[in-house]
Amino acid sequence: xxxxxxxxxAAVALLAMAASAQAGELSATATLKADQPxxxxxxYIYGQFSEHLGAGIYDGVWVGPxxxxxxxxxxxxxxxxxxxxxxVPVIRWPGGCFADEYRWRDGIGPRDKRPSRKNNWWGxxxxxxxFGTHEFMDFADQVGADxxxxxxxxxxxxxxxxxxxxxxxxxxxxxxxxxxxANGRDKPFxxxxxxxxxxxxxxxxxxxxxxxxxxxxxxxxxxHKNADNPAVxxxxxxxxxxxxxxxxxxxxxxRFMDAIxxxxxxxxxxxxxxxxxxxGFDKAAWGQTFSRTLKMDEILQKxxxxxxxxxxxxxxxxxxDEWGTWYDVEPGTNPGHLYQLNTLRxxxxxxxxxxxxxxxxxxxKMTNIAQTINxxxxxxxxxxxxxxxxxxxxxxxxxxxxxxxxxxxxxVTAPEIDVAGAKIPAFNASAAKGKDGKTYVAVANMxxxxxxxxxxxxxxxxxxxxxxxxxxxxxxxxxNAFGAKPTVAPVPFKGGKIxxxxxxxxIPAKSVVVVALD
Length: 518
What we know:
seven-stranded antiparallel sheet; about 525 residues; 2 domains; 28 strands; 11 helices; alpha/beta; eight-stranded parallel beta barrel
């Protein structure tokens, strides 16, 4: 038995040595142009999306005031604390496809008298309407986030939109304002963002861009944007690379909108019938996933070019209000509930997308990952009274200093790597000057094997110290588990040094690094 143990130990050591020998360190240089500040990076780049889908709202946010799970007015206290800690700036609700069947009156008044509906889009589950307008506004307020409300266009009419907006925002003595007061809210709700339709090219009505543009103009005529309702009007935008939709809608209805949306999901295979697994994947799936998520850069460029043509003054914002990974659901779960686990891959992928968004903040003023809790690339998973903060959550938390910062150009060319046939840049990066006066540099190392030694010429920036955080793990699909200490979470980064006007970062494989220069 002793000899067997010795042999096993030696074999493990040899395997570790072999893995170490295969891993390498890539080199790259960059130039920070601190004297050429770019556009502001809005805090809304770090927005969330919470739809009535699976356990995204019920169990994820709402447990009811009588639940044994700690809550405030029925809203989970642990979830609120986590989102507040990550400084979530905005939450989009109630959908998604769900929004274009949602009747807002179903979700107001005494809960025991609210109708139960069938959620036709997401697994046929019963929608109790226990979580409605007042509950959502309470949730957003507890988190400290702004409200982004999506209006039903596909199966509704402008009257219903107008009445919901008046119910939420009217300060007067009109019947709708009095009804809101009777339901427990005296002062008007603050609703800074209102989406007029969702995916109108698909689940929101199967419309052509010409038809939607006309519908948008019709709804906009009754939006009554004024001091009571100063909300940003968001048009339902394109699916992925469909620039024709953006062209037609901004050309025909752009003067009536303040922003237009864009949706793009990352599927490892690119095949909606077999998207790929969230865990247990190989390097080929890793490479394919990052190859596809990096298409976000090209997609943004193409839509921005169209918007620049139709809106040269850059008045209309581009809101990527649905994005993230979409895998096959976990075995044994309802396919319509879109429940997937969340690994280191997702955390690195989130950071890679943040770095892309930072390049286009003259146009990209908001993004909303899909979704906040228990659905797709979730920030948080819940199980009874337990929660898990995912690697995606921690990526968001690491990037908090970029909220309302000022972008700084960072000229860098990452070496190209081949990950089981997928050719991708080893990493991407971005930099900004934070509200605290510090300069921040963020790197998403997408190589599953190689570390990166990045030398950054600081130019005229005078910095004496570097500190920060790193998130990585031994396995590509490492994840955090219920009831256990997180294994994928930020720890202090010790791989940075400043010598003269050069910052050197030694970045581990498959990692996220964010550093502050002081």
